[in-house]
Amino acid sequence: MKVTRRSCRQGAREARGVVVVIDVFRAFTCAPLFFYFGAGRVILEADPDKAQRLKRENPEWILVGEVNEVPLQDADLGNSPSHIMKKGSSFFRGKTIIHRTTAGVTGVAAAVPGADQVILGSFVTAKATAAYIMGRDPDLVTLVAMGDRGKTPAPEDELCADYLEHLLTGTTYEPFEAIGNVLFQRTVQKFLVGEKPYLPPEDPLICLQRDLFDFVPIAETRGEFIEIDRVFLT
């Protein structure tokens, strides 16, 4: 099994084999939470206009989305794991979720055409993801760290890729060094200053937790939609 690395949206387009699209802050920390709180279906929609149209056509669906971190107009929620947690299972149980984000969801859409399979990557599902990949033993795995808005590398995504590479191949990974390399960067500090309600300071605390879930979120194309399936480890 060969493990390669790519970054940002261009890297997602170039990725081949089993592709792990990593978005720690915050898309693919949010995605497992939808299922944890009982969502019945999650649709990934990269186009914000289409995401809004789906909501208008299906008002009972829940729209969770943003453009450059700002919540979509008429969205039920922005892309915030702490806001998802506050809503809880009574809000999500049995519902269809439309999820639109600037980095993670657009990265999945970019990766799907060239990949054998696309996995949604984050710290919260990392160990399950690595176990699933090792069970499949593919020839090629590409780790794509989506970065800040899919344009520039971000330390939390690169370090999550480091952690996955460590789990898959045994490369060195120092967790305390990793935390230190993330906490003092702009991508975390913009949450901690608490200036914008859609960037709550609780979000990084959730996103940096490792290995919370025992399932792997996988992107599957069904007709016009990309949806998330869960594969549980046995």
Give the strand tally. 10
Proportion of strand residues = 15-25%
Mean pLDDT: 97
Query: What does the main sheet amount to?
Result: 10 strands, mixed
Determine the structural class based on helices, strands and strand pairing: alpha/beta
Give the overall form. globular
CATH topology: putative 2-phosphosulfolactate phosphatase
CATH superfamily: ComB-like
Please, how many domains? 1
Euclidean distance between termini CA atoms: 22 Å
Unreliable sequence segments: none
**C-alpha-based Rg, rounded:** 16 Å
Residues in helices, as a percent range: 40-55%
Number of helices, counting only DSSP H or I runs of 4 residues or more: 11
Folded structure, characterized:
Helix 1 runs parallel beside helix 6, helix 7 packs across helix 8 and helix 8 packs antiparallel against helix 9. The protein is of the alpha/beta class. The chain has a 10-stranded mixed β-sheet with strand order 1-8-2-7-9-10-3-6-4-5, with helices on both faces. It has a single domain, classed as putative 2-phosphosulfolactate phosphatase (Alpha-Beta Complex), CATH 3.90.1560. The longest helix is centred in the C-terminal third of the chain and has 15 residues. Helix content is about 40%, strand content about 25%.
